[in-house]
Structures are given as structure tokens and as C-alpha cells.
């Protein structure tokens, strides 16, 4: 029972037939629907929401104690209740001197010590003090990890490609499909390659299997003793790192209070720091910290993560939106949708509340997307004219990260602005008919064609506009998305920091594996056994 939701549902009925165009055109629309943090401008004017909607959403946030839960997270309380852990990713980028406590202990000295160790290691690789076993300088760093130990660093290093320095190349291997590793190392020289094995648990099947394969590649070319110069680890589990054969002096620690999908700011970000240098990695943390302060301190009506999280809940519950599209008009953000898929769907794709009761509202939306303008020539047709309402996130920088000698970048920006406008305002039947009447078409052709061309409009979007995609801006953006997810989870009453839904599949894969290996098809249910039999027949040719 939720009074706030009941009121919102009936408010939604009142908005039936509302025109987004007329909302946008109201003189004071910018007042409560545009927000700024440093150079990050967030435009919410194209949302199916009025001032009253916002007030009702704030009532919902009060009813669901969003601000109190936020404070609990910042104070190191065990907000990950099912695992009895704090969720203190904000400590990893705490650039102030404020102590942050987990279990009553200030975590900042440990956090800062690991940052110093990462810095020293990055510098030693960059300046050639750390070399491969044959004395060659390291030229390529490969991060082997999956999920949160891959997606954040992979997204961020791609996003910050223009900041790559020191001549190092950074690559990522996540999939246990053997082709991922072999495609990644095919053109590399083992003598100049360094592997970072990134795994919070150091127990993830895919990562360890890939790590062993990489180790065989190094050992075959350079001998077993070379392993210590070509492998470092990032983990919370020193025993398993040592058991793999990596000297724990070359392990970069983090802690159980860092969730995997919230870990790119920890030592899991070592590959990012390797690529862009430690100063720029620090700028990334500073940007995130700035957004943390904003999220913690700004009142609800000015709080960007709160506004976005509440609007997500509004669309999910009152407009039956099943998905949200993330559309970066920024090629360097091409891994952002994949990163956000884990962040949002692993955090909030749940059906049980913290107290064990079933949720009564829909939870996580499906997050999907592609960079513009590519998506325009693919799925935007559905965004504009399909029967499903999909709120969109547009992201665009005012200036490109490289010098261009023509108008390609302005074309990109114009397309971004045009898409959001077209979604919101559409194109009505009368205008289309009037346009067609100027052509040679007959009246009957016009009456058939005109409805096909109608763009209904009224399709909501957020535009994130920033000066340039630099490390600090990326930090602000990603921290904003993290807190947005927190707000959604708080409203839905779920634990955004566990992921029990991934366990059954892992367990079954372990059970089924032996019968795939020997072709006996003895494991799994009838369909699995039938498929394993067919697989075996295909393998035998
Ligand atoms: O898929 C589940 C998961 O536990 C993710 O939450 C996590 O990011 C990923 O696996 C990798 O885990 P680890 O860093 O322990 O290898």
C-alpha cells in the first residue's frame, strides 16, 4: 500500500492527452527542469511531467525514505542487507579529508594507500622501471576480468581514448569463449605484454580460466619464471591470488564493501590509470566525488540523481515503460550502454523487497542503446513510431576531443538535437497532408500515405550536455548514473547491491560441464541432455 503511488497513478490519468510540446514551450519550463553541475547540463524539459508531477514524486521519495537511505549509504551502514555489507564506492573517490566508516573503522587510510600503490605501479610501467622478464618495456596491458571487473574499466578506457598517454595500449578480455583471448593476443609479443587479472572474488570461472590460458601463453614463450613479471592481480582475496601464483606484493587490494559493478574507482580501475596516467585517473575520481557531494547535499528539487531516479520510477510504474534507450552522440561512449546494463539491471532487476515481500511495482527497465548517429539508421524508427514508449537518454559534448577540419562534429550535434526534438514534438497529420498536397500525389494516395508518416511525438528524453568528454566529466556522469540507480532501488525497496539471480546459472554450468566434456549427456533436464547429445554428435562429425 502506498499513498504516494496511488496519488501518482491518478495524477497520471489527469495527464492523459497531455502535449509535451506545450509543456516545453511554457515560459518557465526551464526553471525546475534544467540543472547544472560544473559543465554538465542536464535538460529534463522533455519529460512527461509537470511541476505537480515532481512534487508528487518528492512525496514518493519521502514516503520511501530515499534521503535517509542515501545518508545510510554515505555513513557506511550495511545497506547491502542480504550480504550484510556497506556499499561505499563513494569512499573510493572521496577527495576530501572526511573520514568514512565501515564497521566503525575509517576506510580512507586503506583507500589512499592502495591509490598510492597504484600510482607507483603505473609510473613504474610508464617510465620503464617495471619491465618484462626479458628486460623489454611493457607496451600492452590486458585486463582479464568479467562483469564489474571488466565493463567499467573497458567503458572508461574507451571513453577516454584521447587521454591515452605513455605509449601504452590497453585491451580487455572477458568472455571465456577462447576466441576472445586469442583474438586479443594474436598480434602481441609476450615479452612486452602485462596481464592484470581483475576479480573481486578471484573465484570467477571465466576469469580464472582465461587467466590460466594467458599464463600458459606467457610461460610457453618466456618460461614459468616470467609469470611474476607479466601478471599482477586486483582482488579482495589474497589467498586465491597467491594460489594462482601471483606475488601478493603485486596485488592491488579492494574490499567487500565495494560492489563489483561499482568498482571502477577502486584498484579495478588500474587498467584505466595505466591507459590515461594517474593524474587523469585522479581527475576521474574528482569528477565522481563532485557528483557524490551534489547527491548528498542538494535538496530534492535540485538533485540531479534524485530527479532522474524518480522519473525512471514514474515511467516504469505509471507509463508502463519496459525499457530506456541510452543514446550517446559520442563514439567514445560506445561501451556505455553495456556498462549501464550491468549497473542498472544487475542492481535493480529484482522482484523481492529487502523485507522479503514481493515487489508490487515493476522494477529495472531494460537498458539498451547504441551511439548516435548509428542508431538513427537502425532502431530509431521504432523509437519514433513504434507502439512502445521508450524514454531516451541523449548524451553529447559541446566540443569534440580531437581537432576536426570540417563540419562532421556539428552534423553529429545537430542530429542529436533533432532526434530529441522529433521524439518530443512529432509531426501531425494535418501538416503532413498539407505537405503532400504540394506534390503530384492523388487525393487517395495522400490519404493512404499521410497516416504512415505521422510521428506521434510526446516521447520523453533527457539530454546530458557537457563541454568535452574528459576524465572529470566522465566521473560526474558515471557517479550520476550510479546514484540514479540507488534512488530507483530505494523507491522500489530492494537491495541494489546484491545479485542472487546470477547464482543458479553458475551452479548449473558447473554441474553440466563434465557431461559436455565427455559427451555423456547425463546432466541437466531432458532438453539439456537432448541438446548435449546433439552437440556431441555434431562434434564427432
Ligand atoms: O555475474 C556476477 C558477478 O558476481 C558480478 O556481479 C561481478 O561483477 C562479476 O560476477 C565478476 O566477479 P568477480 O570480480 O568476483 O570476478
Descriptive overview:
By secondary structure, the chain is an alpha/beta fold. It is built from 23 helices and 13 strands. The chain has helices at 3-14, 20-25, 29-33, 51-63, 66-74, 89-92, 108-126, 151-159, 178-185, 205-222, 227-230, 238-244, 270-276, 278-297, 304-318, 336-348, 380-385, 408-425, 429-437, 443-453, 471-492, 503-518, 526-540; strands at 34-37, 40-43, 101-102, 105-106, 140-144, 169-173, 193-198, 231-235, 251-253, 323-328, 366-368, 392-397, 461-466. The strands form three sheets. It has a six-stranded mixed β-sheet with strand order 1-2-13-12-10-11, sandwiched between helices. Helix 4 (51-63) packs across helix 15 (304-318) and helix 16 (336-348) runs parallel beside helix 21 (471-492). The protein starts with a helix and ends with a helix. 44% of the residues are buried. 6-O-phosphono-beta-D-fructofuranose binds at residues 146-149, 199-201, 204, 207, 260-261, 346, 499, 502.
Q: Structural class of the secondary elements?
A: alpha/beta
Residue share in helix: 40-55%
Low-confidence stretches are none
In whole angstroms, the N-to-C terminal distance is: 60 Å
Spatial strand order of the main sheet:
1-2-13-12-10-11
- The general outline is globular
Small-molecule binders here are: 6-O-phosphono-beta-D-fructofuranose
Beta percentage is 5-15%
Mean pLDDT: 97
Amino acid at each position: 500500500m502506498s499513498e504516494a503511488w496511488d496519488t501518482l497513478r491518478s495524477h497520471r490519468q489527469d495527464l492523459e492527452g497531455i502535449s509535451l510540446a506545450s509543456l516545453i514551450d511554457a515560459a518557465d519550463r526551464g526553471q525546475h527542469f534544467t540543472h547544472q553541475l560544473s559543465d554538465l547540463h542536464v535538460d529534463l524539459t522533455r519529460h512527461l511531467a509537470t511541476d505537480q508531477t515532481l512534487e508528487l514524486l518528492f512525496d514518493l521519495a519521502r514516503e520511501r525514505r530515499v534521503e535517509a537511505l542515501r545518508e545510510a549509504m554515505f555513513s557506511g551502514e550495511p545497506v547491502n542487507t542480504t550480504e550484510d555489507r556497506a556499499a561505499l564506492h563513494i569512499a573510493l573517490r572521496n577527495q576530501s579529508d572526511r573520514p568514512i566508516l565501515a564497521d566503525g573503522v575509517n576506510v580512507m587510510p586503506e583507500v589512499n594507500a592502495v591509490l598510492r600503490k597504484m600510482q607507483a605501479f603505473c609510473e613504474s610501467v610508464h617510465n620503464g622501471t617495471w619491465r618484462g622478464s626479458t628486460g623489454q618495456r611493457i607496451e600492452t596491458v590486458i585486463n582479464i576480468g568479467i562483469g564489474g571487473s571488466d565493463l567499467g574499466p573497458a567503458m572508461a578506457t574507451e571513453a577516454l581514448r584521447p587521454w591515452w598517454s605513455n605509449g601504452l595500449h590497453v585491451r580487455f578480455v572477458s568472455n571465456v569463449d577462447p576466441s576472445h583471448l586469442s583474438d586479443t593476443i594474436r598480434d602481441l609479443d609476450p615479452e612486452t605484454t602485462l596481464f592484470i587479472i581483475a576479480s573481486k572474488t578471484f573465484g570467477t570461472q571465466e576469469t580464472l580460466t582465461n587467466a590460466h590460458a594467458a599464463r600458459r601463453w606467457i610461460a610457453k614463450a618466456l618460461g614459468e619464471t616470467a609469470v611474476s613479471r607479466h601478471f599482477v592481480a586486483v582482488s579482495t582475496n589474497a589467498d586465491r591470488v597467491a594460489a594462482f601464483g601471483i606475488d601478493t606484493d603485486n596485488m592491488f587490494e579492494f574490499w567487500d564493501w565495494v560492489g563489483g559493478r561499482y568498482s571502477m574507482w577502486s584498484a579495478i580501475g588500474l587498467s584505466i590509470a595505466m591507459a590515461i596516467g594517474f593524474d587523469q585517473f585522479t581527475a576521474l575520481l574528482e569528477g565522481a566525488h563532485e557528483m557524490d557531494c551534489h547527491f548528498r547535499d542538494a535538496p530534492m528539487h535540485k538533485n540531479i540523481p534524485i530527479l532522474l531516479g524518480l522519473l525512471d520510477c514514474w515511467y516504469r510504474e505509471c507509463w508502463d515503460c519496459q525499457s530506456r534507450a541510452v543514446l550517446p552522440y559520442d563514439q567514445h561512449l560506445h561501451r556505455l550502454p553495456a556498462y549501464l546494463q550491468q549497473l542498472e539491471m544487475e542492481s535493480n532487476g529484482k522482484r523481492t523487497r529487502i523485507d522479503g515481500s514481493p515487489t508490487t511495482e515493476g522494477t529495472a527497465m531494460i537498458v539498451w542503446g547504441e551511439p548516435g548517429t548509428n542508431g538513427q539508421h537502425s532502431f530509431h524508427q521504432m523509437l519514433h513510431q513504434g507502439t512502445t514508449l521508450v524514454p531516451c537518454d541523449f548524451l553529447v559534448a559541446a566540443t569534440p576531443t580531437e581537432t576536426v577540419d570540417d563540419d562532421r562534429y556539428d552534423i553529429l550535434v545537430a542530429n542529436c538535437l533533432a532526434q530529441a526534438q522529433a521524439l518530443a514534438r512529432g509531426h501531425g497529420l494535418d501538416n503532413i497532408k498539407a505537405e503532400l498536397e504540394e506534390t503530384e500525389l492523388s487525393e487517395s494516395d495522400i490519404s493512404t500515405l499521410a497516416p504512415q508518416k505521422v510521428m506521434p511525438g510526446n516521447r520523453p528524453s533527457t539530454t546530458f550536455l557537457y563541454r568535452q568528454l574528459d576524465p572529470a566529466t566522465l566521473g560526474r556522469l558515471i557517479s550520476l548514473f550510479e546514484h540514479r540507480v540507488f534512488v530507483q532501488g530505494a523507491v522500489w525497496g530492494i537491495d541494489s547491491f546484491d545479485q542472487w539471480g546470477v547464482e543458479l546459472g553458475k551452479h548449473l554450468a558447473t554441474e553440466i560441464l563434465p557431461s559436455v566434456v565427455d559427451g555423456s549427456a547425463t546432466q541437466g533436464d531432458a532438453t539439456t541432455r537432448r541438446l548435449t547429445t546433439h552437440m556431441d554428435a555434431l562434434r564427432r562429425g
